[in-house]
Amino acid sequence: MVHVNIFDTTLRDGEQSPGVNLNQLEKLEIAKQLERFGVDIMEAGFPASSQGDFEAVKAIAKTIKNSSVTGLARAVKSDIDIAWEALKEAAEPRLHVFIATSPIHMEYKLKKTPEQVMLTAIDMVSYAKKKFTHVEWSAEDASRSDLDFLVRIITKVIDAGATVINLPDTVGYTTPEEYGRMFRYIRENVPNIHKASLSCHCHDDLGMAVANSLAAIENGATQVEGTINGIGERAGNAALEEIAVALNIRKDKYPFTTNLVLKEIKRTSDLVSRFTGMKVPGNKAVVGKNAFSHESGIHQDGVLKNALTYEIITPELVGVQSNDLVLGKHSGRHAFKDKIEQMGFELTQEKLNEAFQSFKQLTDRKKEVTDEDLFAILTDIQTAAVDIKKYELVAFQVHYGSSNLPTATVALTTPEGIKVETARTGGGSVEALYNTLEALVKEEIHLTDFNLSSVGRGRDALAEVHVKMTVNGINVSGRGSSQDVLEASAKAFVNAVNRVFFNQNALVKEPAAL
């Protein structure tokens, strides 16, 4: 069987999803989970795009040992130099450098002739090869490029030292038949193609990213690129969890192997969803909450008699547990520590103590504590920055009644350590609360999105709030969870504002797309 390498770009292409703004601690947690998931290569970011991205890529490169860490660079020397500084301490540093090859991109975006593009690609791959053992070269918008030009430029960049050739469907334009034919043509016509691996990178604008990726694999691609939950620019990327399960379930059709640990799929999906604020649709393949639900009586009857009648994927295969009830108010510190280690979290003693106290407080109010509850507690604590000056919520109170004007009183401590307090009104409880918080912080705030959901089931479920806002003109997101909807809302607001202090140098350059 042919082995296929999995290249995850959740932390680069996925983070380019509108409204997604991950800080360094969140990126690091996702990277560690991707390593547990078994991805061969993870694209940690675009180091030249901002100081924040540079530092995140550098931290991930130092931490990850069992996956190869890569960074994106334009075909520009300064981008390559910055990427090397971020990646040079990685266990297996590699570079991903790209330039557009389609007529429309070369003429209107690059304003270069095909020959100029070819010379730039050759020069930059040669330059990168002096620093990096592994250099992946991408032909941006390959699916709309001239095939004979692709053959010529690929031949040259392989001679220059490229070890991986990526042919992206950048705008999600192609079909499986067309995309597979392109890979077959390149494999049959590039004379030195045996010196490099072929990689596919598909976007989902027409809903065919996964199908196109599988077609590429069938036609010679030995590396597939995508994101968790299919997140990414516009309609997103190929969903890696869907490709992984398709290769597993349909071994008869796809005789290919990967290093992915399928039971880590659900946890990886949940972690990315929580940190990005991008909820997984209920009908999403493999990881949606309805993926293993059966409403129809005929389906229910069939599943009870033999699960294979309607269930081609078992919940356990992807890490979905049928019963996640684990701890209660009488559970001790040792049992709690064992459980969080089983869930894959590595907490310092200080954060372990904080998590245990939060757990005990929750058991006083909630009879049944589930894995989902613990997951919410642990992700909040693990990604809480402790070494920066920030706003902290001291106390709040909201007065509301059907015939009264909603009024909120809030007390905060500022980044300078000063306690401030005030009250404001609003059209509703949340608006009154947010008006008050906005009056207390000195930053200029503009709320653009507010999303409320529950963690788990039942009337005592935790509330989780995700917000998107601009703080001093910088797009940020924030999240907060609590049994109380208003407390969760207040935490999300403060969390978003504090991100500005964590990522002071974010968003310096516009991001790149493949």
Distance between the termini: 29 Å
The largest sheet, given as strand count, sense and whether it forms a barrel, is: 8 strands, parallel, barrel
Helix content: 25-40%
Mean pLDDT, as a whole number?
91
Order of adjacent strands in the largest pleated sheet? 2-3-4-5-6-7-8-9
Low-confidence stretches: 294-300, 505-511
Structural class: alpha/beta
State the helix count. 16
Shape: globular
Radius of gyration: 24 Å
The percentage of residues in β strands lies in 15-25%
Number of strands: 18
Question: What does this molecule look like?
Answer:
The protein has 514 residues and is of the alpha/beta class. The protein is 39% helix and 22% strand. Strands 2-3-4-5-6-7-8-9 form an 8-stranded parallel barrel, surrounded by 8 helices. Strands 13-14-15 form a 3-stranded antiparallel β-sheet. A hairpin with a 5-residue loop joins strand 14 (404-413) and strand 15. The longest helix is centred in the last third of the chain and has 18 residues, at 485-502. The two termini are 29 Å apart. 45% of the residues are buried.
Helices and strands in order:
Blueprint: E1 2-3, E2 5-8, H1 24-37, E3 41-45, H2 51-63, E4 68-74, H3 77-87, E5 94-100, H4 103-110, H5 114-129, E6 134-140, H6 147-160, E7 164-169, H7 176-189, E8 197-202, H8 209-218, E9 223-226, H9 240-249, E10 256-257, H10 265-276, H11 297-305, E11 325-327, H12 333-342, H13 349-365, E12 369-370, H14 371-382, E13 392-401, E14 404-413, E15 419-425, H15 429-440, E16 445-455, E17 462-471, E18 474-482, H16 485-502
Parallel strand pairs: 1-10, 2-3, 2-9, 3-4, 4-5, 5-6, 6-7, 7-8, 8-9
Antiparallel strand pairs: 11-12, 13-14, 14-15, 16-17, 17-18
Helix pairs in contact: 1-2, 1-10, 2-3, 5-6, 7-8, 13-14, 15-16
